[in-house]
Protein backbone atom coordinates (compact mmCIF):
# COMPACT_ATOMS: atom_id res chain seq x y z
CA UNK A 1 0.00 0.00 0.00
CA UNK A 2 1.04 3.59 -0.51
CA UNK A 3 -0.31 6.99 0.39
CA UNK A 4 -0.56 10.19 -1.60
CA UNK A 5 -2.28 13.54 -1.86
CA UNK A 6 -4.91 14.82 -4.23
CA UNK A 7 -5.59 18.32 -5.46
CA UNK A 8 -8.67 20.03 -6.81
CA UNK A 9 -10.30 18.06 -9.67
CA UNK A 10 -7.86 15.15 -9.41
CA UNK A 11 -9.07 11.79 -10.73
CA UNK A 12 -8.41 8.46 -9.04
CA UNK A 13 -9.31 5.07 -10.50
CA UNK A 14 -9.41 2.05 -8.24
CA UNK A 15 -9.73 -1.22 -10.16
CA UNK A 16 -12.10 -3.84 -8.73
CA UNK A 17 -10.61 -5.61 -5.74
CA UNK A 18 -8.13 -2.83 -4.89
CA UNK A 19 -7.89 -2.00 -1.18
CA UNK A 20 -8.43 1.74 -0.70
CA UNK A 21 -9.33 4.34 1.92
CA UNK A 22 -9.75 8.12 1.67
CA UNK A 23 -8.88 10.35 4.62
CA UNK A 24 -9.43 14.11 4.73
CA UNK A 25 -6.14 15.89 5.28
CA UNK A 26 -7.13 19.56 5.12
CA UNK A 27 -9.40 21.92 6.98
CA UNK A 28 -11.73 22.79 4.08
CA UNK A 29 -14.69 21.04 2.53
CA UNK A 30 -14.14 18.07 0.26
CA UNK A 31 -16.37 16.01 -2.02
CA UNK A 32 -15.54 12.53 -3.25
CA UNK A 33 -17.77 11.01 -5.90
CA UNK A 34 -17.59 7.25 -6.10
CA UNK A 35 -19.34 5.08 -8.65
CA UNK A 36 -19.33 1.36 -9.09
CA UNK A 37 -21.40 -1.77 -9.23
CA UNK A 38 -21.51 -4.87 -7.10
CA UNK A 39 -22.95 -8.27 -7.75
CA UNK A 40 -26.00 -9.08 -5.66
CA UNK A 41 -24.26 -11.84 -3.71
CA UNK A 42 -20.82 -10.15 -3.57
CA UNK A 43 -19.04 -10.24 -0.21
CA UNK A 44 -16.90 -7.22 0.67
CA UNK A 45 -13.74 -7.63 2.72
CA UNK A 46 -12.50 -5.07 5.26
CA UNK A 47 -8.86 -5.93 6.10
CA UNK A 48 -6.78 -4.53 8.92
CA UNK A 49 -4.36 -1.97 7.45
CA UNK A 50 -1.34 -0.49 9.23
CA UNK A 51 -1.30 2.44 6.81
CA UNK A 52 -5.01 3.22 7.30
CA UNK A 53 -4.58 2.78 11.08
CA UNK A 54 -2.06 5.65 11.11
CA UNK A 55 -5.01 7.88 10.13
CA UNK A 56 -7.60 6.19 12.36
CA UNK A 57 -9.27 4.61 9.34
CA UNK A 58 -8.59 0.87 9.72
CA UNK A 59 -10.92 -1.75 11.11
CA UNK A 60 -9.67 -3.17 14.39
CA UNK A 61 -10.35 -6.76 13.30
CA UNK A 62 -10.71 -8.15 9.78
CA UNK A 63 -14.39 -8.50 8.84
CA UNK A 64 -16.84 -8.84 5.98
CA UNK A 65 -19.64 -7.14 7.96
CA UNK A 66 -19.99 -3.48 6.89
CA UNK A 67 -21.82 -2.58 10.12
CA UNK A 68 -18.83 -3.82 12.12
CA UNK A 69 -16.38 -2.07 9.78
CA UNK A 70 -18.08 1.33 10.25
CA UNK A 71 -19.17 1.01 13.89
CA UNK A 72 -16.70 3.73 15.05
CA UNK A 73 -17.88 6.29 12.50
CA UNK A 74 -20.81 8.67 12.57
CA UNK A 75 -23.58 7.55 10.21
CA UNK A 76 -24.12 9.45 6.97
CA UNK A 77 -26.69 12.25 7.05
CA UNK A 78 -28.66 13.86 4.24
CA UNK A 79 -28.20 17.50 5.16
CA UNK A 80 -26.02 20.46 4.41
CA UNK A 81 -22.83 20.71 6.46
CA UNK A 82 -22.46 23.60 8.94
CA UNK A 83 -20.00 25.39 6.61
CA UNK A 84 -22.36 25.24 3.57
CA UNK A 85 -22.92 29.01 3.20
CA UNK A 86 -19.19 29.76 3.53
CA UNK A 87 -18.41 27.20 0.83
CA UNK A 88 -20.68 29.05 -1.65
CA UNK A 89 -18.72 32.29 -1.26
CA UNK A 90 -17.32 32.39 -4.81
CA UNK A 91 -20.53 31.38 -6.59
CA UNK A 92 -22.82 33.80 -8.35
CA UNK A 93 -26.30 34.46 -6.85
CA UNK A 94 -27.89 32.59 -9.78
CA UNK A 95 -25.86 29.46 -9.01
CA UNK A 96 -26.63 29.74 -5.30
CA UNK A 97 -30.33 29.94 -6.06
CA UNK A 98 -30.22 26.98 -8.43
CA UNK A 99 -28.19 24.99 -5.90
CA UNK A 100 -30.66 25.63 -3.10
CA UNK A 101 -33.47 24.12 -5.14
CA UNK A 102 -31.43 21.01 -5.94
CA UNK A 103 -30.51 19.81 -2.41
CA UNK A 104 -32.94 20.07 0.46
CA UNK A 105 -32.15 18.98 4.02
CA UNK A 106 -34.45 16.35 5.44
Record keyword descriptors for this entry.
4 helices; mainly alpha; 21% helix; globular; 106 residues
Determine the oligomeric state from the structure: single chain
- Helical proportion? 10-25%
Question: What portion of the residues fall into strands of 2 or more residues?
Answer: under 5%
Give the low-confidence spans.
92-106
Structural shape:
globular
- Termini separation comes to 39 Å
Mean pLDDT: 76
Helix and strand arrangement:
Blueprint: H1 50-53, H2 66-69, H3 84-87, H4 93-102
What does this molecule look like?
Helix content is 21%, strand content 0%. It has a domain of 29 residues. The chain has 106 residues and is mainly alpha-helical. It is built from four helices and no strands. The C terminus is likely disordered.
Question: What's the quick description here?
Answer:
This protein has 4 helices and no strands.
